[in-house]
User: What shape does this take?
Amino acid sequence: MLSIFGNFSEPLSRRHFLTAGAMGMAGLALPELLRAEANSKSGSTKKSIINIHLDGGPPQLDMFDLKPEAPAEIRGEFKPISTRVPGIQVGELLPKIAQIADRCVFVRSLVGSAGAHDGFQCQSGFTAKELSSLGGRPAFGSVLAKMFGSASDMAPVFVDIMQGRPQVRNSARPGFLGPTYTPFRPDISHMFTRELEAGMKNELARLGRSQSINLNLVEGLTPDLVGDRTKLLATFDSARKNLDASGTMDALDRFTQQAVGIILSGKLANALDLSREPDSIVGRYTLNSADGRKSSTSEDGNAGKKLLIARRMIEAGVRCVSVSFSDFDTHEGNFTRMRNLLPIVDNAIHALVTDLEEKGMLDDVAIVAWGEFGRTPRIDPKTAGRHHWPEVSPALLVGGGMKGGQVIGATDHHAARVISRPVHFQDIFASLYKVLGIDPNSTINDPNGRPQHLVEKGLPIRELF
Assistant: This one.
């Protein structure tokens, strides 16, 4: 049984449960989500985004910005390797990304991290404190849901399949746009084991307000019965419709029918069903063995299949999918843990890029992979770990028509400070908006009716276009 989860900061009315009540399910109703999407503007391109969060903070010195001439306590254990693009090197644990470097943009100078241990900046470009009195800034996907959504869509605009910190801390939240624009959150815990730290388990338990929408009809419920129940609801609400001069109640009935259409179409449920993929494709996204030590909170070799689900979601009509890989929070045993985790990420990203390319989709799907901050240049001699380092982070961009085969930015000889071409989190989002054909100077109104720019200080990265 497939469920979608979301956390909301305000009580849910009976209206929010309209569709759920019709189908014997608990949760935020699809009609409410669709109603807002119907009021939004159509997008000007068919392009989509896959946003990969490297949960915990990826180590720049071990991935895309190695410093082989630095002292051993800085450079660490890994050596640089050549890529398909002359002059560009990456870490030895990323040999498959090296093979597709001509499609990749390696950002070595990501700045502006707030140092917060969640995924909010990688979801919005803003810090959690900004506009907090209004509910905070909305996630990128929630903005797209408002701008791109249509009442006739058979798939939601924004799907969040992040696990770990981003889920616990609700990083993909809709902010001041309100719960209507909360992403769909399929429960993939039965498909992918991602153990939470004890503190995060407690944090998730304290939230205690997850709702769900089932994507399959419950046993014994047929399309005809669903139709009868929705007709019954329409009759039940007829008296209130007469009092509703705005026509909202009539609209809600239409959205109820569309919500039923989404469930009956089965597109999203099918996207989560990997048995529909050839074994050869599923195998590409799977890494059966990796060296090093797997942390109790890190992924296993099946984690790459999250990106296969993301691709299938895009094919189903979703415009933005957020995914995470854990756990890059390597305060201890950085190198043994990276020997396990980086090959998994390397294989998964290579599989996604080559899969999209073979399907003729790569120019229409932009991929970004990044984390909340980087890791300390100096290795902790007691723990062999790298700690939090907000001064600079790595990022990877691929596809979407962006110009690959290049490095943007540079750091000093210890990868501790940016010395040229700093790129802010908001610059990345400004670039993604441009990929989608959206002017990043566009505005959306906050609850007070004031226009808020999609990015405040970000500019599209000129080298990408």
Residues 47-117+277-313+329-465 form a domain with the Alkaline Phosphatase, subunit A fold (CATH 3.40.720). The longest strand covers residues 104-111.
